[in-house]
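lol ok so funny story. i was supposed to be doing the assay writeup but got distracted and ended up predicting the structure for this chain instead. priorities right. anyway since i did it might as well share w the group, maybe its usefull for someone
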Amino acid sequence: MQVGLVGYGYWGQKVAHNLGRFVLKSVCDLIPLRLAQARQDFCNILVSTQIEDLLNDTEIQAIFIITPLSTHYTLTKQALLANKHVFVEKPMSSTLQEAKELYMLAKERHKILHCDLTFLYTPSILWIKNNLQQLGQVLSIASRWLLGICRKDTCALYDLAWHALSILSFLYPHALSTSSHLSLLKAPHPNHPTLSTANLHFNIVEIMASLNISWLSPFKVRDMLFIGTQNTLYYNDNALKPLSITPTSLESKQVKTHHPTLPAFSALFKCIESFYQSILNTTPCFDQKRVVLDVLGFLERLTLAP
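and the output, tada:
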């Protein structure tokens, strides 16, 4: 199945090298140096600065959109109207209403619209999804997503917080749509007018949740701490052994930590393979649409909260 790729920056290049059973035919980017890099990386591909060249190519069945957030809605809509399946980088759009419109258009056109939720395909998160019961009743979840590129067309909420929130929505279906006691503490920086540092607090049923995000941290942190009545789980995406399970104990701190054995595979490759299978089966994968809409809805509620 031949595809086109729009955006050949850092993540676009990662996507291009993880296409699996897709065949990359064309790359589109506004920067000539990136197109030169694409030609160097892949023999016999076509390059263009005009997305129309990809959309008008009847051999291209799907479009990968790996561009800044401000362009996602327009480019995705163009691709769907051109009868292409679409894989779009997260977040799918800037607003909940735009995302709903894109999903509706995809349904009307009988096309697959797939958002890049790579973290949901990692061995660690899949293990947590299947083994949450080992923790007993989860009392609290604390997440930290620190260090990122300061962007002009979005804020850290839609960049960094998206990952942790999509994981929570994946683990607890509809949790974000029914969350309560939302609060957002901002730490403005004079040289960064967009929101770059924040603390979020909210409740998921009886679980107390918090999320600390910052573009400005000098250290890269991607972790989540699940405290349960039976066991405590620490997830650290940067560690060689990303999962640590420790018995929850008030009496003794001399406890043994267990590191589950995880399979080794590329989460991005799995995410793209899921898109491929969805096209073959003409059915969107798992409940991806729900996760996307839940996270966008939560972020809109959060930013409007007093």
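The longest strand covers residues 138-146. The chain has two domains: 2-116+268-282, 119-264.
back to the writeup now i swear
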